[in-house]
Prior knowledge:
CATH class of the domain at 10-96 and 180-186 and 210-327: Alpha Beta
Number of helices: 12
Order of helices and strands: EEEHEEHEHHHHHEHEHEEHHHEE
Number of strands: 12
Strand order of the largest sheet: 6-7-8-3-9-10-12-11
Radius of gyration: 21 Å
CATH superfamily of the domain at 10-96 and 180-186 and 210-327: P-loop containing nucleotide triphosphate hydrolases
Helix content: 25-40%
Distance between the termini: 19 Å
Mean pLDDT: 92
Largest sheet: 8 strands, mixed
Shape: globular
Low-confidence stretches: none
Amino acid sequence: MTVVTHAPALDVDGLTVDIRTPSGTVRAVDGVSFGARSGRTLALLGESGCGKSLTAQALVGLLEPVASVSGGAVRLAGTDLVTAGRAARRRLAGPGLAIVFQDALTALNPVYTVGTQLAEPFRIHSGMSRRAARAEAVRLMGRVGIPSPETRVDAYPHQFSGGMRQRLLIAMAVALNPAVLLADEPTTALDVTVQAQIMQLLRELRTERDMAVVLITHDLALVAEEADDVVVMYAGTVVEAGPVAEVFSRPHHPYTRGLLDSVPARVPKGVPLASIGGSPPELRAIPAACVYQDRCPLVQDVCRARRPAERADATGRRVACHRAGELGFQEVPS
Protein backbone atom coordinates (compact mmCIF):
# COMPACT_ATOMS: atom_id res chain seq x y z
CA MET A 1 0.00 0.00 0.00
CA THR A 2 1.28 3.46 -0.88
CA VAL A 3 0.86 6.58 1.18
CA VAL A 4 -1.36 9.34 -0.25
CA THR A 5 0.89 12.35 -0.85
CA HIS A 6 -1.35 15.11 -2.23
CA ALA A 7 -2.03 17.98 0.13
CA PRO A 8 -5.09 17.63 2.39
CA ALA A 9 -7.96 20.09 2.19
CA LEU A 10 -7.45 20.73 5.92
CA ASP A 11 -4.03 20.29 7.49
CA VAL A 12 -3.89 20.38 11.30
CA ASP A 13 -0.33 20.40 12.65
CA GLY A 14 0.41 20.31 16.37
CA LEU A 15 -2.81 22.04 17.47
CA THR A 16 -2.64 22.92 21.16
CA VAL A 17 -5.46 24.45 23.22
CA ASP A 18 -5.16 25.79 26.77
CA ILE A 19 -7.98 26.63 29.18
CA ARG A 20 -7.60 29.26 31.89
CA THR A 21 -9.12 28.28 35.23
CA PRO A 22 -9.12 29.94 38.67
CA SER A 23 -6.41 27.50 39.76
CA GLY A 24 -4.24 27.97 36.69
CA THR A 25 -3.95 27.12 32.99
CA VAL A 26 -4.59 23.55 31.90
CA ARG A 27 -3.84 21.94 28.56
CA ALA A 28 -6.95 20.40 26.98
CA VAL A 29 -5.63 19.62 23.49
CA ASP A 30 -1.95 18.77 23.14
CA GLY A 31 -0.18 18.64 19.78
CA VAL A 32 -3.00 17.17 17.69
CA SER A 33 -2.16 16.60 14.01
CA PHE A 34 -4.18 15.19 11.12
CA GLY A 35 -5.11 15.86 7.51
CA ALA A 36 -8.63 15.74 6.05
CA ARG A 37 -8.76 14.99 2.31
CA SER A 38 -11.34 15.94 -0.28
CA GLY A 39 -13.99 13.30 -0.93
CA ARG A 40 -13.10 11.34 2.22
CA THR A 41 -14.41 11.18 5.78
CA LEU A 42 -11.99 11.36 8.69
CA ALA A 43 -13.30 10.46 12.16
CA LEU A 44 -12.06 11.87 15.46
CA LEU A 45 -12.78 9.02 17.86
CA GLY A 46 -12.56 8.73 21.62
CA GLU A 47 -14.46 8.78 24.90
CA SER A 48 -16.22 11.89 26.13
CA GLY A 49 -13.70 14.35 27.54
CA CYS A 50 -10.85 13.37 25.20
CA GLY A 51 -10.75 16.71 23.39
CA LYS A 52 -12.63 15.92 20.16
CA SER A 53 -15.24 18.69 20.27
CA LEU A 54 -12.75 21.22 21.65
CA THR A 55 -10.53 20.46 18.67
CA ALA A 56 -13.43 21.16 16.31
CA GLN A 57 -14.28 24.42 18.12
CA ALA A 58 -10.66 25.52 17.82
CA LEU A 59 -10.70 24.80 14.07
CA VAL A 60 -13.72 27.04 13.45
CA GLY A 61 -12.69 29.73 15.93
CA LEU A 62 -15.52 29.16 18.38
CA LEU A 63 -13.54 28.67 21.58
CA GLU A 64 -14.99 30.27 24.69
CA PRO A 65 -13.13 33.30 26.10
CA VAL A 66 -11.40 31.17 28.73
CA ALA A 67 -9.83 28.90 26.06
CA SER A 68 -7.30 29.77 23.37
CA VAL A 69 -5.06 28.13 20.78
CA SER A 70 -1.53 28.27 22.20
CA GLY A 71 0.34 26.42 19.47
CA GLY A 72 0.26 24.65 16.13
CA ALA A 73 -1.12 25.48 12.71
CA VAL A 74 -4.44 24.89 10.92
CA ARG A 75 -4.00 25.33 7.17
CA LEU A 76 -7.01 25.76 4.90
CA ALA A 77 -6.82 27.02 1.31
CA GLY A 78 -3.32 28.36 1.90
CA THR A 79 -4.29 30.25 5.07
CA ASP A 80 -3.21 29.40 8.61
CA LEU A 81 -6.41 29.87 10.60
CA VAL A 82 -4.49 30.14 13.87
CA THR A 83 -2.68 33.33 12.84
CA ALA A 84 -5.29 34.67 10.38
CA GLY A 85 -7.17 37.81 11.29
CA ARG A 86 -10.91 38.03 11.84
CA ALA A 87 -11.56 39.23 8.28
CA ALA A 88 -9.74 36.25 6.74
CA ARG A 89 -11.57 33.82 8.98
CA ARG A 90 -14.89 35.43 8.08
CA ARG A 91 -14.16 35.00 4.36
CA LEU A 92 -13.44 31.29 4.86
CA ALA A 93 -16.42 30.62 7.15
CA GLY A 94 -18.83 28.92 4.78
CA PRO A 95 -16.89 28.59 1.50
CA GLY A 96 -13.85 27.06 3.22
CA LEU A 97 -14.91 25.53 6.51
CA ALA A 98 -18.36 24.83 7.97
CA ILE A 99 -19.66 22.93 10.98
CA VAL A 100 -22.77 20.92 11.87
CA PHE A 101 -23.45 20.96 15.63
CA GLN A 102 -24.99 18.11 17.58
CA ASP A 103 -27.90 20.09 19.08
CA ALA A 104 -29.88 21.58 16.21
CA LEU A 105 -32.49 23.22 18.45
CA THR A 106 -29.91 25.41 20.17
CA ALA A 107 -27.83 25.97 17.02
CA LEU A 108 -30.79 27.41 15.10
CA ASN A 109 -32.07 30.86 16.11
CA PRO A 110 -35.63 30.42 17.45
CA VAL A 111 -36.79 33.95 16.56
CA TYR A 112 -36.02 33.79 12.83
CA THR A 113 -37.66 31.62 10.19
CA VAL A 114 -35.54 28.83 8.75
CA GLY A 115 -35.72 30.51 5.35
CA THR A 116 -34.17 33.68 6.75
CA GLN A 117 -31.37 31.70 8.38
CA LEU A 118 -30.68 29.62 5.27
CA ALA A 119 -30.66 32.72 3.06
CA GLU A 120 -28.19 34.63 5.24
CA PRO A 121 -24.97 32.99 3.89
CA PHE A 122 -25.96 33.85 0.32
CA ARG A 123 -26.65 37.47 1.21
CA ILE A 124 -23.42 37.90 3.20
CA HIS A 125 -20.95 36.03 0.97
CA SER A 126 -22.56 36.23 -2.48
CA GLY A 127 -24.35 39.56 -2.25
CA MET A 128 -27.64 38.07 -3.47
CA SER A 129 -30.87 39.94 -3.32
CA ARG A 130 -33.40 38.92 -0.71
CA ARG A 131 -35.56 37.19 -3.33
CA ALA A 132 -32.66 35.27 -4.90
CA ALA A 133 -31.35 34.18 -1.49
CA ARG A 134 -34.80 32.97 -0.51
CA ALA A 135 -34.98 30.91 -3.72
CA GLU A 136 -31.61 29.34 -2.85
CA ALA A 137 -32.92 28.57 0.65
CA VAL A 138 -35.93 26.75 -0.82
CA ARG A 139 -33.66 24.81 -3.19
CA LEU A 140 -31.39 23.77 -0.31
CA MET A 141 -34.32 22.67 1.83
CA GLY A 142 -35.49 20.44 -0.99
CA ARG A 143 -31.99 19.04 -1.50
CA VAL A 144 -31.65 17.93 2.11
CA GLY A 145 -35.05 16.25 2.10
CA ILE A 146 -37.36 18.80 3.71
CA PRO A 147 -40.85 18.06 2.28
CA SER A 148 -42.77 20.94 0.64
CA PRO A 149 -39.93 23.46 1.08
CA GLU A 150 -41.88 26.24 -0.67
CA THR A 151 -44.52 26.19 2.06
CA ARG A 152 -42.18 25.52 5.02
CA VAL A 153 -39.53 28.11 4.26
CA ASP A 154 -41.33 30.60 6.53
CA ALA A 155 -41.66 28.17 9.45
CA TYR A 156 -39.67 28.46 12.68
CA PRO A 157 -37.19 25.85 14.02
CA HIS A 158 -39.54 24.59 16.75
CA GLN A 159 -42.05 23.62 14.05
CA PHE A 160 -39.72 20.91 12.71
CA SER A 161 -38.86 17.49 14.12
CA GLY A 162 -35.38 16.73 15.44
CA GLY A 163 -34.35 14.97 12.25
CA MET A 164 -35.67 17.80 10.07
CA ARG A 165 -33.83 20.38 12.18
CA GLN A 166 -30.61 18.42 11.71
CA ARG A 167 -31.20 18.45 7.96
CA LEU A 168 -31.65 22.22 8.13
CA LEU A 169 -28.33 22.59 9.97
CA ILE A 170 -26.64 20.52 7.28
CA ALA A 171 -28.25 22.68 4.60
CA MET A 172 -26.89 25.83 6.27
CA ALA A 173 -23.42 24.27 6.55
CA VAL A 174 -23.16 23.22 2.89
CA ALA A 175 -24.89 26.31 1.44
CA LEU A 176 -21.62 27.77 0.12
CA ASN A 177 -19.98 24.48 -0.93
CA PRO A 178 -17.35 24.31 1.83
CA ALA A 179 -14.10 22.51 1.19
CA VAL A 180 -14.28 20.97 4.67
CA LEU A 181 -17.35 20.06 6.73
CA LEU A 182 -17.04 19.36 10.46
CA ALA A 183 -19.83 17.16 11.82
CA ASP A 184 -19.80 17.17 15.64
CA GLU A 185 -21.90 14.20 16.82
CA PRO A 186 -24.47 14.94 14.07
CA THR A 187 -26.83 12.09 15.03
CA THR A 188 -27.01 12.64 18.79
CA ALA A 189 -30.53 12.18 20.28
CA LEU A 190 -31.97 10.93 16.97
CA ASP A 191 -33.58 7.54 16.58
CA VAL A 192 -31.76 4.84 14.61
CA THR A 193 -33.74 5.28 11.40
CA VAL A 194 -33.22 9.05 11.34
CA GLN A 195 -29.53 8.60 12.17
CA ALA A 196 -29.12 6.43 9.08
CA GLN A 197 -30.92 9.00 6.93
CA ILE A 198 -28.71 11.85 8.20
CA MET A 199 -25.51 9.89 7.54
CA GLN A 200 -26.72 8.93 4.07
CA LEU A 201 -27.35 12.62 3.36
CA LEU A 202 -23.83 13.53 4.49
CA ARG A 203 -22.38 10.78 2.27
CA GLU A 204 -24.30 12.05 -0.75
CA LEU A 205 -23.27 15.66 -0.17
CA ARG A 206 -19.63 14.67 0.35
CA THR A 207 -19.61 12.85 -2.99
CA GLU A 208 -21.53 15.53 -4.90
CA ARG A 209 -19.34 18.38 -3.68
CA ASP A 210 -16.04 16.53 -3.15
CA MET A 211 -15.91 17.80 0.42
CA ALA A 212 -13.60 16.61 3.15
CA VAL A 213 -15.74 15.55 6.12
CA VAL A 214 -14.42 15.45 9.69
CA LEU A 215 -16.78 13.31 11.79
CA ILE A 216 -16.53 13.71 15.57
CA THR A 217 -17.97 10.77 17.48
CA HIS A 218 -17.51 8.14 20.17
CA ASP A 219 -19.56 5.60 18.18
CA LEU A 220 -17.26 2.87 16.86
CA ALA A 221 -19.96 1.36 14.64
CA LEU A 222 -20.56 4.74 13.00
CA VAL A 223 -16.84 5.15 12.34
CA ALA A 224 -16.58 1.65 10.86
CA GLU A 225 -19.49 2.31 8.52
CA GLU A 226 -18.91 5.93 7.50
CA ALA A 227 -15.24 6.89 7.81
CA ASP A 228 -12.26 6.26 5.56
CA ASP A 229 -9.65 7.34 8.12
CA VAL A 230 -9.67 7.59 11.90
CA VAL A 231 -7.78 9.59 14.51
CA VAL A 232 -8.07 8.05 17.99
CA MET A 233 -7.80 10.68 20.74
CA TYR A 234 -7.18 10.24 24.44
CA ALA A 235 -6.65 12.96 27.06
CA GLY A 236 -6.29 15.63 24.38
CA THR A 237 -3.64 13.74 22.39
CA VAL A 238 -3.59 11.53 19.30
CA VAL A 239 -2.68 7.97 20.29
CA GLU A 240 -3.30 6.26 16.94
CA ALA A 241 -4.29 7.22 13.40
CA GLY A 242 -4.69 5.61 10.00
CA PRO A 243 -7.19 4.03 7.60
CA VAL A 244 -10.25 2.75 9.48
CA ALA A 245 -10.09 -0.77 8.05
CA GLU A 246 -6.48 -1.21 9.15
CA VAL A 247 -6.78 0.44 12.55
CA PHE A 248 -9.90 -1.54 13.47
CA SER A 249 -8.55 -4.87 12.21
CA ARG A 250 -5.04 -4.45 13.69
CA PRO A 251 -4.99 -1.85 16.48
CA HIS A 252 -1.48 -0.90 17.57
CA HIS A 253 -2.36 1.07 20.72
CA PRO A 254 -3.78 -0.53 23.91
CA TYR A 255 -6.47 2.16 24.11
CA THR A 256 -7.71 1.45 20.57
CA ARG A 257 -7.67 -2.27 21.29
CA GLY A 258 -9.58 -1.69 24.52
CA LEU A 259 -12.27 0.30 22.72
CA LEU A 260 -12.70 -2.40 20.09
CA ASP A 261 -12.75 -5.22 22.66
CA SER A 262 -15.55 -3.39 24.48
CA VAL A 263 -17.95 -3.72 21.53
CA PRO A 264 -20.62 -6.27 22.57
CA ALA A 265 -21.01 -7.65 19.03
CA ARG A 266 -17.44 -8.96 19.17
CA VAL A 267 -18.11 -11.07 22.29
CA PRO A 268 -19.58 -14.62 22.04
CA LYS A 269 -22.79 -15.29 23.94
CA GLY A 270 -22.17 -16.13 27.60
CA VAL A 271 -18.75 -14.49 27.74
CA PRO A 272 -18.50 -11.50 30.15
CA LEU A 273 -18.29 -8.14 28.39
CA ALA A 274 -14.90 -6.47 28.41
CA SER A 275 -14.43 -2.85 29.43
CA ILE A 276 -11.68 -0.33 30.03
CA GLY A 277 -11.35 0.23 33.76
CA GLY A 278 -11.33 3.73 35.18
CA SER A 279 -11.94 6.93 33.25
CA PRO A 280 -9.89 9.52 31.33
CA PRO A 281 -7.79 11.77 33.57
CA GLU A 282 -8.96 15.22 34.60
CA LEU A 283 -7.23 18.04 32.78
CA ARG A 284 -5.29 19.02 35.91
CA ALA A 285 -4.06 15.46 36.37
CA ILE A 286 -2.92 14.39 32.90
CA PRO A 287 0.38 12.53 33.36
CA ALA A 288 3.53 14.12 31.97
CA ALA A 289 4.58 10.74 30.57
CA CYS A 290 2.16 8.35 28.81
CA VAL A 291 -1.34 9.77 29.13
CA TYR A 292 -2.88 6.26 29.18
CA GLN A 293 -0.63 4.75 31.85
CA ASP A 294 -3.23 4.57 34.63
CA ARG A 295 -5.63 2.41 32.58
CA CYS A 296 -3.21 0.48 30.38
CA PRO A 297 -2.84 -3.31 30.88
CA LEU A 298 0.63 -3.18 29.27
CA VAL A 299 2.07 -0.36 31.38
CA GLN A 300 5.77 -0.57 32.30
CA ASP A 301 8.27 1.70 34.01
CA VAL A 302 9.17 3.41 30.72
CA CYS A 303 5.51 4.41 30.30
CA ARG A 304 5.62 6.25 33.62
CA ALA A 305 9.01 7.82 32.89
CA ARG A 306 8.51 9.55 29.54
CA ARG A 307 5.84 10.29 26.96
CA PRO A 308 6.03 8.05 23.87
CA ALA A 309 6.97 9.78 20.63
CA GLU A 310 4.59 9.42 17.70
CA ARG A 311 5.89 6.96 15.12
CA ALA A 312 4.77 6.08 11.58
CA ASP A 313 4.92 2.90 9.53
CA ALA A 314 5.34 2.42 5.78
CA THR A 315 1.60 2.91 5.10
CA GLY A 316 1.37 6.19 7.01
CA ARG A 317 -0.28 4.75 10.12
CA ARG A 318 0.73 6.62 13.27
CA VAL A 319 0.88 5.46 16.87
CA ALA A 320 2.19 6.90 20.14
CA CYS A 321 2.98 3.95 22.43
CA HIS A 322 6.16 2.44 23.88
CA ARG A 323 4.67 -1.05 23.53
CA ALA A 324 3.28 -0.68 20.00
CA GLY A 325 5.78 -3.15 18.57
CA GLU A 326 4.27 -5.92 20.69
CA LEU A 327 0.89 -5.16 19.08
CA GLY A 328 2.27 -5.60 15.55
CA PHE A 329 3.47 -2.07 14.74
CA GLN A 330 6.48 -1.89 12.43
CA GLU A 331 8.08 1.54 12.38
CA VAL A 332 9.78 2.84 9.24
CA PRO A 333 13.57 2.75 9.88
CA SER A 334 15.09 6.22 10.09
